[in-house]
């Protein structure tokens, strides 16, 4: 299957650069570009891409608000946030808004393509060592668990809670299966049930939930 991508960035050189790099991949097609968040929302509705490369700082509508609108519209598109800094408070806000992960703008062509494929497959977090550090850093902004978030933890079984904590620590399904000494298919089932019970889109949202519910303590 070909992964259909929309690139949203207010800098033409960035849009064209990413489009050229991704267009050279046999299984990725750039189907559209957007110069700001408002246009990105319209492009997603029109083109129904699989992945949106979303810059955060854009005129008219920023990437956070655009991500929130795209997620609220029930679009199938996964949002991959583009940022210049690996510790950017706006990235955490974008993850909370529904983004599936983030990527530094100085990523190589291979890293860019791999990130698009990972997000399209629903296998976020991206770059666990960096993303986990970012989430941990900005989860500190909340001194106490959000009441609705904490209450929803009670909907999970003990094993599902355990899996959720490991997701937040950046482990893949295979790594979680090895840690718990169960089949990977069992972990996939647990992850699916966790997302359904908590009303979350993907693993990145699950990780943010775990931090906000204080299942994982920032440090």
Concise account of the structure shown:
By secondary structure, this protein is α/β, with parallel strands linked by helices. It has helices spanning 12-23, 37-47, 63-72, 89-97, 109-120, 128-139, 147-152, 158-168, 173-180, 184-198, 203-212, and strands at residues 3-8, 28-34, 51-55, 78-83, 101-104.
Task: Report on the architecture of this protein.
The chain has 219 residues and is an alpha/beta fold. It folds into two domains: 3-138, Rossmann fold; 143-212, Arc Repressor Mutant, subunit A, CATH 1.10.10. It contains eleven helices and five strands, in the order βαβαβαβαβααααααα. Strands 2-1-3-4-5 form a five-stranded parallel beta sheet, sandwiched between helices. Helix 2 runs parallel beside helix 3 (63-72), helix 8 (158-168) packs across helix 11 (203-212) and helix 9 crosses helix 10. It is globular and about 50 Å long. The termini are far apart. The model has no long low-confidence stretch (mean pLDDT 83).
SSE map:
Blueprint: E1 3-8, H1 12-23, E2 28-34, H2 37-47, E3 51-55, H3 63-72, E4 78-83, H4 89-97, E5 101-104, H5 109-120, H6 128-139, H7 147-152, H8 158-168, H9 173-180, H10 184-198, H11 203-212
Parallel strand pairs: 1-2, 1-3, 3-4, 4-5
Helix pairs in contact: 2-3, 3-4, 8-10, 8-11, 9-10
In DSSP terms, counting alpha (H) and pi (I) runs of 4 or more, how many helices? 11
Q: Would you state the CATH class of the largest domain?
A: Alpha Beta
The second-level CATH architecture of the largest domain is 3-Layer(aba) Sandwich
| N-to-C span | 40 Å
The number of E-state strands comes to: 5
The CATH H-level homologous superfamily of the largest domain? Response regulator
* Helicity level: 40-55%
Report Rg.
Answer: 17 Å
Coarse morphology: globular
Given helix and strand content, the structural type is alpha/beta
Which whole number gives the mean pLDDT?
83
Placed side by side, the strands forming the largest sheet appear as 2-1-3-4-5
Task: Report the sheet with the most strands, covering strand number, pairing sense and barrel closure.
Answer: 5 strands, parallel
pLDDT < 50 stretches: none
Number of domains: 2
Residue fraction in strands = 5-15%
Write the element-wise H/E pattern from the N-terminal end onward: EHEHEHEHEHHHHHHH
CATH level-3 fold name of the largest domain: Rossmann fold
């Amino acid at each position: 299957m070909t992964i259909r991508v929309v690139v949203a960035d207010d800098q033409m050189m960035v849009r064209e650069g990413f489009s050229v790099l991704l267009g050279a991949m046999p299984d990725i097609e750039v189907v559209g570009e957007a110069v700001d968040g408002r246009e990105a929302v319209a492009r997603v509705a029109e083109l129904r891409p699989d992945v949106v490369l979303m810059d955060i700082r854009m005129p008219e509508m920023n990437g956070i608000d655009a991500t929130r609108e795209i997620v609220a519209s029930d679009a199938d598109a996964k949002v991959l946030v583009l940022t210049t800094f690996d510790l950017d408070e706006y990235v955490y806000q974008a993850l909370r808004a529904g983004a599936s992960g983030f990527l530094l703008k100085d990523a190589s062509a291979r890293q860019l393509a791999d990130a698009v494929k990972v997000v399209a497959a629903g296998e976020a977090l991206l770059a666990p060592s960096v993303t986990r550090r970012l989430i941990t850093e900005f989860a500190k902004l909340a001194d106490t668990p959000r009441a609705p978030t904490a209450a929803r933890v009670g909907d999970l079984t003990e094993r599902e809670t355990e899996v959720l904590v490991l997701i937040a620590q950046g482990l893949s399904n295979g790594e979680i299966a090895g840690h718990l000494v169960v089949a990977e298919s069992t972990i996939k089932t647990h992850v699916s049930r966790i997302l359904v019970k908590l009303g979350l889109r993907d693993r990145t949202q699950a990780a943010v939930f775990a931090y906000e519910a204080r299942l994982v303590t920032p440090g």
